[in-house]
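Aim 2 progress update. The chain analyzed this quarter is reproduced below.
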Amino acid sequence: MDSNVRREIILENYQDPMNRGLIDDDTYLKVNTNSESCIDNLDFQIKIEDNTIKDIRFDGEACAISTSATSIMIQRLIGKTVEEVKNILKNYQNMIEDKEYDKDVLGELIVYEEINKQPNRIHCALIPSIAVQEILSKIEGNKVEYGENN
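Predicted structure tokens:
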């Protein structure tokens, strides 16, 4: 991908991220993710119905990479089944970690394909996938928690 196009996509999603702002709805699963090495501290809300991601919301303070990666990932995951989401996350993480991956399932997430050349930014790019995986593990472990206390 052309570096100017990559920069434009990242900047656009940082300046005007999709689904920023939490809502008061107890049907959403909630999780917080943060970074010890960066300002990233994001709260995520995910609504899953009929094994499909219906909505994802987020808010908090984060760097350009975390914010834009979250916005792009939200766009990629809404409307997907849990199994499709797992496949996207696996391929995304493999790409970030410079392992074999299927770029066809990533859509615009491909803008982070060279982030591994900046090791201090890897965790920033992984923040949204960590949050989604944590929510999915709650579901799979039958530890689903709704509302304010999770």
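The helical segments are 3-15, 64-77, 82-96, 122-140. Residues 143-150 have pLDDT under 50 and may be disordered. These observations will guide the mutagenesis experiments scheduled for the next reporting period.
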